[in-house]
Amino acid sequence: MKRYFVTGINTGVGKTVVSALLCEYLKSDYFKPVQTGYPPDRDSEWIKNIVSFPLITHPECYLLKEPASPHLAAKRENVYIDFHQIKLPVTQNTLIIEGAGGLLVPLNERYCIADLIKHFEAECILVISNYLGCINHSLLSLFYIQKNNLPFKGVILNGNFETEIKEAILQHLPNSQFIAEIPNVPSLNKEKFLKLSRTFHFKLNTSL
What we know:
By secondary structure, this protein is of the alpha/beta class. The protein is built from 7 helices and 9 strands.
């Protein structure tokens, strides 16, 4: 089973949209180990409703109410996130795993999202969006990935980037690790999503 772990340089950078596009492209399963902000947010339901095929979504290990970092959301519900109880679902399909926030978002006092990537032996895909500070956040994330030897597939740029900003980030990567650039689509719905999914291909060098 091939596994990709979708993380980002910050919260709100488009990890769920990217995860949906990857699911559509690869016809894969979807798994979000820890979901906060529920209700109303449940990324697995949003993705299931927007793709064109009968997507298999695997249940969250932790489903928390507070729209906050997992460790804080858990504390406010008197829940402890047990890292070793976060297990991969059983499937023969390619699996897209979506993290919460960025690499160093804590799950508890010891473990963070980056630890899940190693735990799952999944290849990390880093989602980058264009905002003031994104270059610094991107390079810090890439530095952490490289320094800690996280399995790394590459980056996806989500949104519209000035050439100078894009080059400032991508010059630190080989071309093979630039997977895709997704244009900004306001008010994304199913029709727009399916049109978007047909406009490009992910550069994933893999034996899928």
